[in-house]
Design goal:
- The protein contains no helices and eight strands.
- It is mainly β and 98 residues long.
- The termini are close together.
């Protein structure tokens, strides 16, 4: 069952994205479609560390952090980091768990 929450991210520094339930197998981030002028900015994905080389995701697209089987993420585990290319936006963080 998918669970969703929202996180605010900026271009100032990477924001940690954490799993929020035990055994999540994937965590997807997408800019919230309710943001004025959606899509507003490209996203920079950094994993596993906030100092890693970012991958640029075009505005309006999502990115999924995947846990390598057989176990899922632990609740509170950092799955990666997200930063905007410019400005501030709100992300939907969707999680799938068994």
């Amino acid at each position: 069952m998918a669970k969703t929450r929202q996180v605010s991210v900026t271009s100032a520094s990477p924001t940690a994205i954490t799993a929020f339930s035990y055994a999540a197998t994937s965590v997807r981030v997408t800019e919230n479609r309710g943001v004025a002028g959606w899509p507003t900015t490209d996203l920079l994905i950094l994993k596993p560390s906030s100092s890693d080389t970012p991958v640029r995701i075009p505005a309006g697209n999502s990115y999924t952090f995947q846990k390598v089987p057989p176990r899922g993420y632990a609740a509170g585990e950092v799955v990666g980091y997200v930063q905007t290319v410019a400005g501030t936006t709100t992300l939907d963080v969707d999680e799938d768990s068994p």
